[in-house]
Amino acid sequence: MSALETADHRRDGHRVLEHRLAVPLDHADPAGERITIFAREIVRDGGEDLPHLLYLQGGPGGRADRPAQLTGWLDRALRDYRVVLLDQRGTGLSTPADALTVTARGDARAQADYLAKFRADAIVDDAERLREALLGGTPWSLLGQSFGGFVITRYLSVAPHAVREALVTGGLPGLTAGAEDVYRRTYALTARRNRQYFARYPGDEASLRLLARHLADTVELLPTGERLTPRRVRQIGIRLGADLGFDALHYVLEDPFVTVGGTRRVSRAVLADVGALLSHATNPLYAVLHEAIYAQGRATRWAAHRLREHVDGFAEDADPADTSIPFFLTGEHVYPWQLREDPALAPLADAADLLAAKDDFPVLYDPEALAADGPPVAAAVYLDDMFVPFDLSMATAEALHDARPWVSNDYAHDGIRTDGARILDRLIALARR
Length: 433
Hints:
Keywords: Hydrolase. The protein is α/β, with parallel strands linked by helices. The protein is built from 17 helices and eleven strands. The protein has helices at about 70-75, 100-105, 110-115, 120-135, 145-160, 180-200, 205-215, 230-235, 245-255, 270-280, 285-290, 305-310, 335-340, 350-355, 365-370, 390-400, 415-430, and strands at about 5-10, 15-25, 35-45, 50-55, 80-85, 140-145, 165-170, 255-260, 265, 375-380, 405-410. The strands form two sheets. Strands 1-2-3-5-4-6-7-10-11 form a nine-stranded mixed β-sheet, sandwiched between helices. Strands 8-9 form a two-stranded antiparallel sheet.
């Protein structure tokens, strides 16, 4: 595939174009191996002459949205743009990077070398190839949620001329912050969210402790086949960072047990819910590359794992029966043992260890370029964001040439999911101020 290939169909008053484009696996070696990227473009009838908006989803490792309905932020965007939903390399209908395809590359070193080419810098280079194929020299607008905002910040560091305006929701990264800088902050933010959650649902703290004690003594298997351990069940706390996450967790912890023949067991329904929260079968790159998105010239060395023992409430071997110390759920933190307990990740565990030890990842952001002349950047920065620390985001906003932050405590990290039309409307107005 040497040129853009496009198929199209109709959907509810819209034209949907499905683009495939071959790009270099390593953009520093344009004549070398190639992979395919996929993007779905949606054009509302009458909007054929509108400018293009590239949407970069959160992650890493998440495919682009597959909207069942053209509602929310997408409905609002289609009033002003032709919307392009890119499956970032390794995800969705782009050439996949998962346990099946990556292990076929060879040993752990070969796998790690391959996976190292799936960070934000390569995603931006892919997007530039796609823009040139679709638009030639015309710039486009960008919308990035969470990690998508990290990709945008990289984009503005290397190709600001290609960007008409940038819209960011919960995704301004620290420009020089490493993994330790980020996780030190996010552990504190996660502890705060735990306290807020247990204040809303006081009975759930005791339920969590009881569940963890039970899992230490009783073998309970997730639907994916592996044992649910006390340290693993604490990872459901990733939901604490979502707008509706407290309620979702409460429905898991409010009554997790059934009695069978006089013996307490975890209900099959709860195991299914927990398994859905914990499995990375659909997004293995999230776990494998999560720390690597913060690696800039130095190794991460499993920063989240090293730091947790020094933060009250998160020690891995904490006794849940000891109520004199807090016993918290963890958040957006990935641990080396997790790579070996999740069947979808286990084949990649050795490669992930090598990535954690890699000390020559290139720097992603260029503060000088970002401070120079560039497009407006309208950014929703959430005070209560558990995953992207507020102080780092605001420091980046100060460093950008034309940042227009909207600071709000109305939303958690995933506000675009719950009130996307309103948030996008506000950001578009800011960008065009």
